[in-house]
């Protein structure tokens, strides 16, 4: 099978994609030219007919058809080249005015094609939230996206390691956690601990540590109590009852600890009430909230805490960078899961869909004036770089077939108009009107 004409591209042979358009243009041009030649032959043949009304009508109509066909042939040809190669003014319009036409075409595209209304219509029809959802929900696309993001993480993290991010964090963090709302934040965090019973675990831990300390320091406590009794009651009294007093005191402390230990004990319930009351004060009392905020601010601005945070960040950054290089690392898995959750949220939450659409529309709207200007310049530059032959050939291949219909119609309309005009003149002026 014939693949059609071939063109050379960088030394290689490639199919001519305009071959079909060339054949179509050639076929329509032959039809239009053939009709013009036929009309001329009909005009010549009319002179061989016997003189009379039919001969005069045919002569007038064929003459007008030849004139109409020639006029339209000249007009169509003058758009792309000089008719018969003659230097007639105002011919070969497209090659001579290609730069001006390119600028006009670019301005038209920028002003009337890339408009706010058209762009909004295209965006609405494209359903960008749906596209993003399908992209993020498909593992075949979400996985490569997560891998690409993970590969970009080291560069991103490295770009903020120039000291500015640290200085910004050191100034911003105290304002965030040390402001008036710090007390409420701490209160909410403590509420979470209390509702989960974590404060009782802390209380149990403190009691256990206290018992351990009493056990390890029992001998020192006995000696201290005996010495205190001796100081207050004399050596004889200290020797007689000092040891007994010390034993009773230590036994009483251990007994109280044992009484506090069980769940639901009076002391534990009192501790629970006290903690909740303090949390409520932190949340409702402006002075207490301000004290908490100031305390938090002092902590986070302390140099040792700042050094610790920098060390934590450095370790975390290095761990993320190392893990991001692993194809099956946690970083890629977390990013992929995050993208999938975001895709699901877009599909399920109308507010997120609407927000995404508004965000895209706002971005496109802000970039639209620049896009219009660049599109106009781009079209003008591309057309300006084409040589005259390229411009002529490309435009003629796109519109030349339709222009041949102008030639065909001009020939036929001229033929009919010439005949009708002859008949009208004949009716008005009689046989003296003669042929056109």
From TrEMBL:
<keyword id="KW-1133">Transmembrane helix</keyword>
<protein>
    <submittedName>
        <fullName>DUF445 domain-containing protein</fullName>
    </submittedName>
</protein>
<keyword id="KW-0472">Membrane</keyword>
<dbReference type="GO" id="GO:0005886">
    <property type="term" value="C:plasma membrane"/>
</dbReference>
<feature type="transmembrane region" description="Helical">
    <location>
        <begin position="408"/>
        <end position="429"/>
    </location>
</feature>
<keyword id="KW-0812">Transmembrane</keyword>
<dbReference type="Pfam" id="PF04286">
    <property type="entry name" value="DUF445"/>
</dbReference>
<feature type="transmembrane region" description="Helical">
    <location>
        <begin position="30"/>
        <end position="49"/>
    </location>
</feature>
<dbReference type="InterPro" id="IPR007383">
    <property type="entry name" value="DUF445"/>
</dbReference>
């Amino acid at each position: 099978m014939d693949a059609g004409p071939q063109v050379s591209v960088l030394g290689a042979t490639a199919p001519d994609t305009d071959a079909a358009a060339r054949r179509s243009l050639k076929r329509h041009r032959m039809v239009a030219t053939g009709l013009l030649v036929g009309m001329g032959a009909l005009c010549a043949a009319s002179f061989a007919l016997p003189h009379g009304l039919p001969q005069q009508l045919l002569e007038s109509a064929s003459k007008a058809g030849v004139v109409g066909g020639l006029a339209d042939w000249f007009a169509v040809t003058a758009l792309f080249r000089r008719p018969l190669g003659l230097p007639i003014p105002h011919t070969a319009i497209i090659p001579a005015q290609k730069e001006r036409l390119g600028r006009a075409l670019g301005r038209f595209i920028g002003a009337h094609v890339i408009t706010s209304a058209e762009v909004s219509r295209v965006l609405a029809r494209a359903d960008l939230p749906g596209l993003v959802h399908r992209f993020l929900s498909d593992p075949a696309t979400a996985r490569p996206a997560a891998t690409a993001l993970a590969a970009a993480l080291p560069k991103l993290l490295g770009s903020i390691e120039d000291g500015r991010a640290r200085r910004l964090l050191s100034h911003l963090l105290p304002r965030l956690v040390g402001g008036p709302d710090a007390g409420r934040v701490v209160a909410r965090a403590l509420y979470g601990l209390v509702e989960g019973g974590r404060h009782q675990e802390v209380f149990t831990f403190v009691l256990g540590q206290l018992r351990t300390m009493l056990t390890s320091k029992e001998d020192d406590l006995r000696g201290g109590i005996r010495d205190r009794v001796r100081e207050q009651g004399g050596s004889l009294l200290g020797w007689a009852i000092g040891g007994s007093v010390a034993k009773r005191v230590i036994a009483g402390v251990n007994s109280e600890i044992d009484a506090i230990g069980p769940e639901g004990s009076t002391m534990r319930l009192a501790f629970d009430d006290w903690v909740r009351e303090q949390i409520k004060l932190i949340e409702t009392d402006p002075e207490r909230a301000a004290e908490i905020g100031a305390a938090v601010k002092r902590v986070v601005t302390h140099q040792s805490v700042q050094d610790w945070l920098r060390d934590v960040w450095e370790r975390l950054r290095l761990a993320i960078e190392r893990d991001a290089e692993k194809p099956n690392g946690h970083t890629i898995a977390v990013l992929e899961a995050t993208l999938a959750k975001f895709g699901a949220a877009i599909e399920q939450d109308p507010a997120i869909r609407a927000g995404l659409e508004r965000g895209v529309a706002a971005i496109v709207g802000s970039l639209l004036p620049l896009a219009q200007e660049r599109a106009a310049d781009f079209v003008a530059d591309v057309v300006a770089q084409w040589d005259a032959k390229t411009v002529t050939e490309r435009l003629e291949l796109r519109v030349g077939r339709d222009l041949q219909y102008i030639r065909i119609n001009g020939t036929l309309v001229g033929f009919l108009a010439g005949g009708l005009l002859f008949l009208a003149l004949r009716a008005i002026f009689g046989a003296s009107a003669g042929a056109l």
